[in-house]
């Protein structure tokens, strides 16, 4: 080797100038590191860009200002934030956090809040579909834009407050649980961990599953009614009126299903009792799954929502800058 052993040992440290207290850098093949940087950066850019299209679409066009779309807007904002957070995750590929303890705390805290807000938004989406399918005659009076905006605001505020209480020790003293310089570790107590597990996963996921099971049962019964020759005429009219709502329920059901599949691994680890301490590097796989889900949502919209495809066309052709473009029929 061209380097003496002392220099080789220093090269493996995150901060060679702090020889006795620096964390060790992960020894990964150069090709693997470059590939991970490219993949993570691409997902980050794609996630932020696609969700920005959703945010612009729903915010700009007045016809899209429906209660359901306001919930999708809230979800897109959290997904857009996930895309931005992914750029921080690229800093942990070699196992070294170079941005300091405060930025580590901000990064981890935002990740917790966004995750909690996303799950809360999913509960609201499930409830919206439940009312639309099971109580269609009361939907327009029960689910209004004003009430949905209040629910979204409360969802985000509760996420901020709840996660602040859960992570209070980490927020008081950033870097408190780091064992060496260059680490980005978060530790929460068992009580806080179980509280987070209950209120950020078990309770909301149970509500989502119960609501969508109810929606599924009603959808199946209505589908059978349309095929029955002895079905009442009024029932047929009711089913016809709910056709678009059923389609929306299927699309949003797919969004919820993908969300659950991407979020369950972390909470399954928590349920198995692997511990409440998790460094950012060891949680990379779980976080990347969450990021990948955020990238998938706009793609699902593009496949199932004609209004999203039309709005993308108007955005790319710069027609949204035309006078009264916000009143375009979608």
Automatic annotation (TrEMBL):
<feature type="domain" description="G-protein coupled receptors family 1 profile">
    <location>
        <begin position="50"/>
        <end position="301"/>
    </location>
</feature>
<protein>
    <recommendedName>
        <fullName>G-protein coupled receptors family 1 profile domain-containing protein</fullName>
    </recommendedName>
</protein>
<keyword id="KW-0472">Membrane</keyword>
<feature type="transmembrane region" description="Helical">
    <location>
        <begin position="252"/>
        <end position="272"/>
    </location>
</feature>
<keyword id="KW-1003">Cell membrane</keyword>
<keyword id="KW-0812">Transmembrane</keyword>
<feature type="transmembrane region" description="Helical">
    <location>
        <begin position="70"/>
        <end position="89"/>
    </location>
</feature>
<feature type="transmembrane region" description="Helical">
    <location>
        <begin position="109"/>
        <end position="127"/>
    </location>
</feature>
<feature type="transmembrane region" description="Helical">
    <location>
        <begin position="197"/>
        <end position="220"/>
    </location>
</feature>
<feature type="transmembrane region" description="Helical">
    <location>
        <begin position="284"/>
        <end position="308"/>
    </location>
</feature>
<keyword id="KW-1133">Transmembrane helix</keyword>
<dbReference type="Pfam" id="PF00001">
    <property type="entry name" value="7tm_1"/>
</dbReference>
<feature type="transmembrane region" description="Helical">
    <location>
        <begin position="34"/>
        <end position="58"/>
    </location>
</feature>
<comment type="similarity">
    <text>Belongs to the G-protein coupled receptor 1 family.</text>
</comment>
<dbReference type="InterPro" id="IPR017452">
    <property type="entry name" value="GPCR_Rhodpsn_7TM"/>
</dbReference>
<keyword id="KW-0297">G-protein coupled receptor</keyword>
<dbReference type="GO" id="GO:0001594">
    <property type="term" value="F:trace-amine receptor activity"/>
</dbReference>
<dbReference type="InterPro" id="IPR050569">
    <property type="entry name" value="TAAR"/>
</dbReference>
<feature type="transmembrane region" description="Helical">
    <location>
        <begin position="148"/>
        <end position="168"/>
    </location>
</feature>
<dbReference type="InterPro" id="IPR000276">
    <property type="entry name" value="GPCR_Rhodpsn"/>
</dbReference>
<keyword id="KW-0807">Transducer</keyword>
<keyword id="KW-0675">Receptor</keyword>
<dbReference type="GO" id="GO:0005886">
    <property type="term" value="C:plasma membrane"/>
</dbReference>
């Amino acid at each position: 080797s061209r380097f003496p052993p002392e220099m080789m040992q220093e090269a493996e440290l995150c901060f060679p100038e702090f020889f006795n207290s620096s964390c060790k850098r992960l020894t990964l093949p150069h090709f693997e590191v470059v590939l991970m940087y490219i993949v993570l950066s691409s997902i980050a850019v794609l996630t932020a860009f696609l969700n920005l299209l959703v945010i612009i679409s729903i915010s700009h066009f007045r016809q899209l200002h429906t209660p359901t779309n306001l919930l999708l807007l809230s979800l897109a904002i959290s997904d857009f934030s996930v895309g931005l957070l992914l750029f921080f995750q690229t800093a942990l590929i070699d196992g070294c956090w170079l941005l300091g303890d405060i930025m580590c705390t901000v990064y981890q805290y935002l990740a917790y809040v966004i995750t909690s807000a996303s799950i809360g938004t999913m509960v609201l989406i499930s409830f919206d579909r439940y009312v639309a399918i099971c109580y269609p005659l009361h939907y327009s009076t029960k689910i209004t834009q004003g009430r949905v905006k209040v629910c979204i605001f409360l969802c985000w505020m509760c996420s901020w407050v709840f996660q602040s209480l859960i992570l209070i020790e980490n927020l008081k003293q950033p870097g408190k649980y780091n064992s060496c310089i260059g680490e980005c570790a978060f530790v929460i107590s068992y009580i806080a961990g179980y509280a987070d597990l209950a209120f950020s996963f078990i309770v909301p996921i149970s509500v989502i599953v119960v609501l969508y099971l109810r929606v599924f049962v009603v959808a199946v019964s209505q589908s059978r009614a349309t095929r029955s020759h002895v079905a009442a005429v009024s029932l047929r009219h009711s089913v016809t009126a709910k056709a678009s709502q059923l389609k929306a329920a299927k699309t949003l059901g797919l969004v919820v299903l993908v969300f659950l599949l991407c979020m369950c691994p972390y909470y399954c680890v928590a349920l198995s009792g692997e511990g409440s301490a998790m460094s950012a590097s060891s949680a990379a796989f779980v976080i990347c799954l969450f990021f990948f889900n955020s990238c998938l949502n706009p793609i699902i919209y593009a496949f199932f929502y004609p209004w999203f495809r039309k709005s993308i066309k108007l955005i790319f052709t710069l027609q949204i800058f035309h006078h009264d473009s916000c009143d375009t029929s979608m």
